[in-house]
Predict the 3D structure of the following.
Amino acid sequence: MSNIYRRPALAAQMAQQLLKPGVLDEGLRSGLFLSGLRRTGKTTFLLNDLIPALEDAGALVIYVDLWSDTQTSPAALVLAAVRKSLAELQTPASSMLQRLKRVGGVDVAALGFKFGFKLDNLGLKGGPTLAQALTEVVDQAKTDVVLIVDEVQHAITSDDGNQMLLAIKSARDAVNPRPGTQGHFIFIGTGSHRALVSELTARRNQAFAGANSLPYPVLGTDYVQHLLTRLVQEGAQHLPSPAVTNQAFATLGNRPEELLKALRQLNRHLPPGGNPDEHLPVIAETLRSTAADIDLMKVEQLGSLATAIFERIAATDGDARGLFSAEAAADYTKTVGRTVRVEETQPVVNELLAANLIMRRGHGMYGITDPFVQEIWREKKALEGEG
Ligand SMILES: Nc1ncnc2c1ncn2[C@@H]1O[C@H](COP(=O)(O)OP(=O)(O)OP(=O)(O)O)[C@@H](O)[C@H]1O
Ligand SMILES: [Mg+2]
């Protein structure tokens, strides 16, 4: 059995809704955003389940991860991915073409696509727009093109990224409303920041106003069962019950790596005659509270002003504004215990941004990058308040 627990039925159902939507799902063609906490398996699900399901249904899938290279701009990463796929379509032996031919019976696939433009300057000045290029692809392939952008939230933090989202939107609007179009252009974005990803679809001025935002379906009891079965097959002893393991998985935010860590610790440290069902919950609680420690320690190392700024953001529901106001400076002064001048704030905010501990969510608006870290920080504050 493989290490990855696959969810083909769920993926096939999602692919069906996206590619052949019923009346109620038609809105999914406007774009779909999946949001889920960090390390819960979003990328794994896309690569192992959703992409194969979409391809099996005959779609042409282009995937790009905006977190794969934070040095390159989101727009450049997306264009590079599209260029690479289109280049494959021009190459008769490419696996993409072979699949199209096999699944869709597309005759042009035997020869390779002939585009009426050069790929080199796609999306750049003087070159074809994304909308033009994707319209040609849909028309030649006579099938759906799905663009998946993993960690799409990175795009809305820069002008360049926002331009890219608008270019994707105009591609959608160029392809889909044509009567008798032979395929559709479907955009899927994922992100770990639920509020931010929902915002992409809710804000009127965003490229994807009206698109759908859904929570990523986290791994559940069937995954836990699969894991326990594998452990039994490996001859593991002293395993916890499924119910207690499920509970521990929930405590750990449905993160497979954390559950594995907890089970490893249980295996190593269970005293002779100990009851796994009594020990696993304790281990899970401890792991949960240490999960955010690395990030919180980084904040502390940046100094007391950084800590004060981080705390102000973490204590805010939704966007934190006014970080550079006189009122905020007075607040920092109290926390830090010395006079903090307004102009001291910006460089420290920049350091927090560079360390990816906070993120800019729009003009003058900030949020904690990892919502899980924020949650743990709040739990710790609440405990301090009690103690
Ligand atoms: N279906 C699965 N079966 C087994 N392990 C899984 C599964 N999905 C995810 N994992 C494991 O969980 C970890 C996180 O997975 P992944 O990188 O896909 O999550 P993510 O939500 O995309 O994380 P990030 O927020 O870092 O982008 C990886 O170690 C991965 O192997
Ligand atoms: Mg990921």
